[in-house]
């Protein structure tokens, strides 16, 4: 009897404690792609023109179900739930329990739907026909015939909806009246990114033509949107390369059009951080003038140093990593010698295929002012150690754990990678020829 009473009491305490938290559960249907699995999704927050994950949410493989308890820091603010390319907004308070059924551009909210989530639910009902072109399977195929009339039919209902938002949450209402019109524009651009286009300007819906005439990216609040950066990218791409049939690089046509100085600088820095440029040195040189705040200027100096580094004659950025015995070696330790850096991994077949040629190249320069640094990006140190010792690999072998200055400043994204420096630490080749090509030996000889 006492055990029964105690169990009931514990259950009551557990239920009471659970009720103090906000819980989101439901299903999110998403198909696997080459670059993204669907066994986990995220709760995101908006930051710097995009989104950053605040927590990971497992998704059941069998029925796509999930359940997540939100931290206190994720309450009373807008968060976004889903995958990087498909998210939905939620607004939770302590004790809320929300159920969502999402996927393919649509979502339903049920359970304890507060006033803020009801706004999101009703908005998604309005724009669902437009989002069908972007998210529904083969939706883009229907765009040529159905897009224009669908867009035209939604413009006024969307505007009326935004004007009538009144949840009693003043801050929320104010933000949504800014956010949702941009969200509508963002969805309206989708079909053009998938191939939709018209032969003449007068065939485009008036909404699209007017958007291109009036958008000058003057509103700093764009950068508070979870799709702010993408909105700028997408609208500029459609305007210049689909609507106006121009040629060129996207980053070059966008920057001059952003009239808000701070946001223009933020955009430039984001392009650099995401490596979405064609020629880094030229992009940095052209746009460093736009930095406004001290923080922006400081960040740009880092990118400027990296950009110069990549050019022949550019000053190297020092890095340091330990060998098998724990001794740390700096790049600057080898000034006065030509240095070939080999960035590799034990799991990289092309890297292993180059090793015999690299060993032969090293042997050919014995006794000369040439140093060979092989730096592994392996994250399992034992595998690296075993291979170096078992194969008795020559040269100086260092372990990076895929971290540090070499990875970040030299922007190493793939291996094998060979980088050649001259005796003064100046860049000779940021992406050098592989050892299996005799031209690499000739290049090294020319720098001794």
From TrEMBL:
Pfam families in UniProt: AhpC-TSA
Domain Thioredoxin: 310-448
Molecular-function GO term, any one: oxidoreductase activity
Chief location: other
GO biological process, one term: cytochrome complex assembly
GO cellular component terms listed in the entry, alphabetical order: cell envelope
Compartments, as annotated in UniProt: Cell envelope
Alphabetized UniProt keyword annotations: Cytochrome c-type biogenesis, Disulfide bond, Isomerase, Redox-active center, Signal
InterPro entries hit by this protein: AhpC/TSA, Thioredoxin-like_sf, Thioredoxin_domain, Thioredoxin_ResA/DsbE_sf
Keyword Repeat tagged: no
Residues annotated as signal peptide: 1-19
PANTHER family for this protein: THIOL:DISULFIDE INTERCHANGE PROTEIN DSBE
This protein's name: Thiol-disulfide isomerase or thioredoxin
Source taxonomy: Bacteria, Pseudomonadati, Bacteroidota, Chitinophagia, Chitinophagales
């Amino acid at each position: 009897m006492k055990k029964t009473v105690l169990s009931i009491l514990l259950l009551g305490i557990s239920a009471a404690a659970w009720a103090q938290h906000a819980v989101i559960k439901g299903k999110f249907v998403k198909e696997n792609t080459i670059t993204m699995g669907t066994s986990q999704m995220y709760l995101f927050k908006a930051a710097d023109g995009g989104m950053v994950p605040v927590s990971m949410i497992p998704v059941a493989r069998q029925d796509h179900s999930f359940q997540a308890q939100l931290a206190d820091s994720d309450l009373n603010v807008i968060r976004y739930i889903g995958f990087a390319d498909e998210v939905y907004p939620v607004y939770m308070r302590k004790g809320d329990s929300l159920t969502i059924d999402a996927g393919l551009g649509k979502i339903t909210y049920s359970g304890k739907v507060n006033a803020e989530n009801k706004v999101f639910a009703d908005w998604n009902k309005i724009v669902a026909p437009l989002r069908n072109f972007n998210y529904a399977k083969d939706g883009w195929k229907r765009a040529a015939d159905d897009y224009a009339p669908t867009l035209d039919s939604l413009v006024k209902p969307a505007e009326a909806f935004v004007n009538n938002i009144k949840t009693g949450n003043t801050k929320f209402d104010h933000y949504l009246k800014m956010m949702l019109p941009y969200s509508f524009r963002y969805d309206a651009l989708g079909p053009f990114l998938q191939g939709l286009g018209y032969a003449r300007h007068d065939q485009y819906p008036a909404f699209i033509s007017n958007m291109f005439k009036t958008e000058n990216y003057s509103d700093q609040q764009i950068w508070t949107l979870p799709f702010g950066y993408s909105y700028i990218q997408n609208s500029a791409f459609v305007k210049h390369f689909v609507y106006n049939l121009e040629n060129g690089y996207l980053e070059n046509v966008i920057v001059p059009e952003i009239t808000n100085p701070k946001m223009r600088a933020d955009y430039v820095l984001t392009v650099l951080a995401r490596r979405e440029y064609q020629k880094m040195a030229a992009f940095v040189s052209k746009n460093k003038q736009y930095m406004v705040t001290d923080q922006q200027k400081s960040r740009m100096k880092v990118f400027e140093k990296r950009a110069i580094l990549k050019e022949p004659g550019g000053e190297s950025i020092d890095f340091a990593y330990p060998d098998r015995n724990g001794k740390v070696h700096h790049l600057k330790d080898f000034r006065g010698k030509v240095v070939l850096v080999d960035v590799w991994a034990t799991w990289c077949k092309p890297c292993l295929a180059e090793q015999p040629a690299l060993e032969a190249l090293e042997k050919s320069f014995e006794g000369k002012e040439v140093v060979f640094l092989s730096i592994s990006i392996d994250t399992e140190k034992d595998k690296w150690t075993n291979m170096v010792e078992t194969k008795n690999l020559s040269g100086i072998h260092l372990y990076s754990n895929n971290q540090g200055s070499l990875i970040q400043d030299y922007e190493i994204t793939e291996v094998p990678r060979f980088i050649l420096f001259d005796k003064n630490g100046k860049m000779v080749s940021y992406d050098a020829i592989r050892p299996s090509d005799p031209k690499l030996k000739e290049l090294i000889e020319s720098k001794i």
